[in-house]
Design a protein that fits this description.
Length: 113
């Protein structure tokens, strides 16, 4: 494919045209979002899981309770998706909040398809 040559021309009001990486090279991939996943365990109190979800993921008490109950019943629940570094930071902070109280509460991350 021929190389992309940015036009020297300026548009009417004198601004330089701007292009996104995807316009210049349509093969440029969007960085994948990463899921934060809550894992069930038999020891962490339900109310503590709800409190951690509210504090770290800024969800309402209702939403936190739904996420906790889904993980409790099914083994895992996707909490939310973020850019990779944010997902990893939140998963680590939330897991550490449990560790600080002696609970095995665990959050992991995985890339979206
Ligand atoms: N299963 C725990 C209990 O019955 C509660 C719990 C729910 C713990 C979800 C972790 O990800 C979790 N106390």
């Amino acid at each position: 494919m021929a190389a992309f040559v940015p036009p020297a021309a300026r548009i009417a009001d004198g601004r330089k045209p701007r292009y996104t990486p995807r316009q210049i090279n349509p093969k440029t991939e969007r960085p994948k979002l990463h899921k934060v996943i809550l894992i069930n365990d038999d020891f962490t109190p339900r109310e503590f899981v709800v409190a951690v979800l509210m504090a770290e993921f800024r969800v309402s008490e209702d939403q936190a309770h739904r996420i906790m109950i889904t993980a409790h019943r099914r083994g895992v629940c996707v909490v939310a998706v973020f850019a990779k570094d944010i997902a990893e930071t939140k998963a680590t902070r939330a897991t550490d909040a449990g560790k600080a109280k002696g609970y095995p509460l665990m959050f992991t991350t995985e890339p979206e398809e």
